[in-house]
Amino acid sequence: MTEKEAKESADGKLEIIRKHLDFIDECVVSQNFEDIPDQVDCIRDELNKQHEKKSGSR
Predict the structure, then answer these.
(1) Nearest CA-CA partner of 50 in 16, 7, 6, 1
(2) What is the dihedral of CA 44, 50, 51, 55, to 10 degrees?
(3) Domain containing 12: what range?
(4) How many beta carbons lie within 10 A of that of residue 30, not counting itself?
(5) Which end of the chain has fewer CB within 10 Å, C or N?
């Protein structure tokens, strides 16, 4: 993996995490803690899908 590919991969992962962290932040502010585990699951699932796409494209 080149440095450019590594940066693109990291940027993609950060975008996924940021998207869900915004929602988690809203949950914390409104004290809606029940939805947080679902968001963590979504982050994990999306990161796994991204990893599978990268692995499958080789």
Answers:
(1) 16
(2) 160
(3) 3-56
(4) 9
(5) C
Number of domains in the chain: 1
pLDDT tens digits, one per residue of 18-44: 999 999 999 999 999 999 999 999 999
Alpha helix (H) residue ranges in the chain: 3-29, 36-56
For residue 54, the model assigns a pLDDT of 74
- The sign of the CA dihedral 23, 28, 30, 35 is positive
Q: Tell me the C-alpha to C-alpha distance, in Å, between residue 30 and each of 27, 50, 57, 58.
A: 5, 30, 41, 44
The rounded mean pLDDT for the chain is: 89
Model confidence over 45-56: pLDDT tens digits? 999 998 887 777
